[in-house]
Amino acid sequence: xxxxxxxxxxxxxxxxxxxxxxxxxxxxxxxxxxxxxxxxxxxxxxxxxxxxxxxxxxxxxxxxxxxxxxxxxxxxxxxxxxxxxxxxxxxxxxxxxxxxxxxxxxxxxxxxxxxxxxxxxxxxxxxxxxxxxxxxxxxxxxxxxxxxxxxxxxxxxxxxxxxxxxxxxxx
Length: 171
Ligand SMILES: [Zn+2]
Known about the structure:
Layout lengths: L11 E7 L11 E2 L2 E2 L5 E10 L3 E15 L6 E15 L8 E2 L8 H11 L10 H7 L1 H34 L1
Parallel strand pairs: 6-7
Antiparallel strand pairs: 1-4, 2-3, 4-5, 5-6
This protein binds zinc ion (ZN).
The site of zinc ion has 7 residues, from loops.
């Protein structure tokens, strides 16, 4: 991720990069069902300041995510926007600061972590509840009916069958 590694002589750093450039080698940008597709653009708007400890980075990063609504199953779009206030130093402290390389400042990990923290956690539903439930009702009823049928037959038939066999053999 070369573009994120150039430090000098940049003070402000405003770019849009593809989300693919933030992806970990193996992990997609995803928390549960909430996903940042690789082709989305990440808006990066940062100011880099040389301070005595290293380099202070502040500003904002933002990207759009998608998820399927848990109620109506339609796709939801949302935005994750993170405020950045981080320090890069040569001997970074775990969880507190990031590594300042000899020649480069690699912002990739910081941007990725900041964005992932802003993704919604848990069940995601449409913001417009009325529109969402109007799109959902037939699905909800069908699901309830069929799950009742399944649980009834699951409970009754196999148990009785097993019990019948047992009783019969003992007699
Ligand atoms: Zn919905």
